[in-house]
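Hi F.,

I've been meaning to write this up properly since the lab meeting, where we talked about keeping a consistent format for the predictions we share between groups. The idea is simple: the sequence comes first, exactly as it goes in, then the structure tokens exactly as they come out, then a line or two of notes. No screenshots and no reformatting. I'm using this chain as the first example so we have something concrete to point to.
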Amino acid sequence: MKSSSEFIELTAKLQKLFIERDNSYTLCVVIGDIECALLRFLYKANKPLRMREIARMYEISNAKVTRVLNKLVKMGFVERYHSDDDRRSWFARITDEGLKMAENTSYKLNKFQEEVLELIPDNEIDKTYSALKTFVDAYEKIITDSTKKTCEIS
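Output, unedited:
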């Protein structure tokens, strides 16, 4: 039976591989990690967001959000505009070019996953998926349960 330290080692290796995969197949290498994360965030949000909300969510200063968004605006991936109800407030939204870039990244990641699956023998794919799902579900349950316990204590 494998020990918990062996699982920690394996999950750390898996995490490192996923990070390398993401960095290899995204603009993060070119535009920077925080810019890439913000672009993905705007893509997933699928709606304009106030810049101060972004700063609060990322726990960074408004000035840092402005610098990051300026870079994305220059690249044509994001646009900013004033709020109609408060001229001091700015919104950011992903542009059509930004959407294409985010979608292209998703396509590349799917292609990458297909290549990985091709290296696993056909008779092992279902077993691999099942084992990985069992492991992920167990992790999720422990994290959810510990979060609930923490919230009950507070």
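Notes:
The chain has two domains: 4-118, 120-154.
The longest strand covers residues 78-82.

If this format works for you, I'll send the rest the same way.

G.
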